[in-house]
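Model the whole thing, not chain by chain.
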Amino acid sequence: MFLELTPKIKFLGLSFDLTVMIGTLVTAVLVLLICTLATRRREMRPSGMQNFVEMLVEFVQNITNMMLEPKRAEKYLGFAFTTFLFIFIANELGVIVMITANTTGPLPGLGITGNLLKQAHTDSISWFKSPTSDINVTVAMAFAITIYAHIAGLFKSPKGYFRHYFEPYAWMLPLHIIDEVAKPTTHAARLWANIFAGEVLIMILREGTFYLTGIPLMAWIGFSLFVGAIQAYIFTVLAMVYISQKIADNH
Amino acid sequence: MSMTVIAGGIMIAFGALAAGLGNGILFSRYLEGIARQPEARGTLFGQAMIALGLVEALPIISIAFGLLVLFGIIGG
């Protein structure tokens, strides 16, 4: 059994996953640090950190310019850049650092009861991993983007928003509703599944024999870094696509 | 126990099959593209990588749920 338990605390009847909270906190602090350090002493001829962040901003600018009209692209650049940098760092963090502890007995304060330990056949507790390898995080991000896109579409033109559901024919309403439900679901599951499958394979290779922990593990870690970057890019592109579908002029 | 292991194995196997087929089609077309127009290699590579991420999505979702079934987290 390779899957690990996570510590949870109960507060006001809600269950908070400590691993995810630590992970998102560290990621947010890293994003803030990188952006603050890069813009501390700005120069006309950028070097080092500033150069790197300017390259990233231009990279994200290409995405927004590709998906939205130029006059709207400016407005969404900040949002797209934040999304991209947060997901990129969150994905790579779990590949680089993974902290796991073994417990000797049940820890009721952290939501790990004796019953759960017996059910899970494992005594390892994960304290640090990618926050994006937890489905709740990606679902929250995807739903927030979807709700924003719908509200932006409603505010732009309420008539156009509702008419869109009956175009080109009225009987296509069920198809549109399925489309609207499937979009956030696949948006979230795509990111989560890539990172989760990568982490589980790293855990399996780590537990294996010498022949598994050598070159196969290194190769898979390299591929995981690549997949993390690609998935951050795709998440940002799709977020911009879903927003632009709702606020586009031509329909 | 054994039935969930078989179910998880089937899900992972079909995920790998689908990813193999999808990536095969994608990269064969990409190679055709750069054989016809070698100077378009740079732009085609970027587009192929986006398409790779999109094609990989559904197989990897199947594999992730297969792993969850295999380890008895869901559907046991």
